[in-house]
TrEMBL record:
Keywords: Lyase. Its EC number is 4.3.2.7. This is glutathione-specific gamma-glutamylcyclotransferase. Transmembrane segments: none annotated. It comes from Xaviernesmea oryzae. It is an enzyme of class 4 (lyase). PANTHER family: CATION TRANSPORT PROTEIN CHAC-RELATED, GLUTATHIONE-SPECIFIC GAMMA-GLUTAMYLCYCLOTRANSFERASE 2. GO terms for molecular function: glutathione specific gamma-glutamylcyclotransferase activity. One of its GO terms (cellular component) is cytoplasm. CDD domains: GGCT_like. GO terms for biological process: glutathione catabolic process. It comes from the Bacteria. InterPro entries: ChaC, GGCT-like, GGCT-like_sf.
């Protein structure tokens, strides 16, 4: 158990991992914020990238929440795996916990990950807690697009978050058809509103 103030987090992190890898599926891919030895294309199995987390601050408000990415159950997700040196393991975990576990909407887990050449590793990843109040569930493309189009928070409009994510994924050669569908629908709605 890891204690953070009044909250307790239960982690599924195996401390006997031969190598320490971190899996990123959203902004962690292009803005990790920690030192790493190696960065590799990777795929996590059993989870998919999804706009499934209500944002009450950065991309929405409590009265009109926006949507941000979570790693939800089902399918697979292309992303990036970072290999972290043994001497940086504790510092990186501390940093990731401060970054990812602010509201406890994510759970820290060890994920089975396949690196680009097919090598299998285990990596620390952050999956959405389906029991958390911020879990938006599995939304359809059109429902997600309407929320994204009409939401804004302290970090700016929700549509800018989605378009920025799609731009980075494209630069990295990663296709996410569902998220691309949301982007197309948001663009069409924005053009129709002009």
């Amino acid at each position: 158990m890891f204690s953070n103030g009044a909250s307790n987090f239960e982690y599924d992190v195996a401390w006997d991992m031969d190598e320490f890898w971190v899996f990123g599926y959203g902004s962690l891919m292009w803005n990790p914020g920690f030192a790493f030895e190696e960065r590799r294309p990777a795929r996590a199995f059993g989870f998919r990238r999804s706009l499934c987390v209500w944002s009450y601050v950065h991309r929405g408000t409590p009265e009109h929440p926006g949507l941000v990415l979570g790693l939800d159950r089902g399918g697979s997700c292309r992303g990036v795996a970072f290999r972290v040196s043994e001497e940086n393991r504790e510092d990186v975990l501390d940093y990731l916990r401060r970054r990812e576990l602010v509201t406890n909407v994510y759970k820290e887990k060890i994920l089975p990950v396949s690196l680009g050449e097919g090598r299998q590793v285990r990596a620390v990843g952050y999956i959405v807690d389906r029991q958390h109040v911020q879990y938006a569930g599995a939304l359809g493309i059109e429902d997600a697009a309407e929320i994204v189009r009409t939401s804004s928070g302290q970090s700016g409009p929700n549509d800018a978050y989605v378009f920025n994510t799609l731009s980075h994924l494209k630069e990295m050669g990663i296709r996410d058809l569902w998220l691309e569908g949301v982007g197309v629908s948001v663009s069409a709605r924005l053009q129709a509103a002009v």
